Amino acid sequence: MLEILPETHDNILAVRVRDKLTIPDFDQYRNMVRDLMLKNEETHIYYEMVDVDWINPVATIENGLFDVIHGLDYGRVAMVGEKKWQELSAKLASTVKKHGIRYYDLADKEQAMKYVLEGDNPTPTP
């Protein structure tokens, strides 16, 4: 299941995925990313996985090809997860992204969101 988070705005897409990821989930995600990429120089992504126990293999391949084609259009990308295979998939996908992917454990999701929203050098609040 794909959930769009409230932090989604402008050139930022924030999503949470749970349970099983299907082809329609990936299609919705890719369409949203594609739309943002058409409107913005860089698109920043927050991608959180919670209790994901199955991902459709065809959708994974399609998503990987999309990433290869559009890798330079990505800005800051944070992947948040709770399993070793998720960290490994982030490292693999990181190779085709302009700025790579930063992987965070689920306990550090606030830090991951802050990175996506503000980057490494957030502007100080008055």
From TrEMBL:
Signal peptide: none annotated. It comes from the Bacteria. Pfam families: SpoIIAA-like. This is SpoIIAA-like. It comes from Pontibacter lucknowensis.
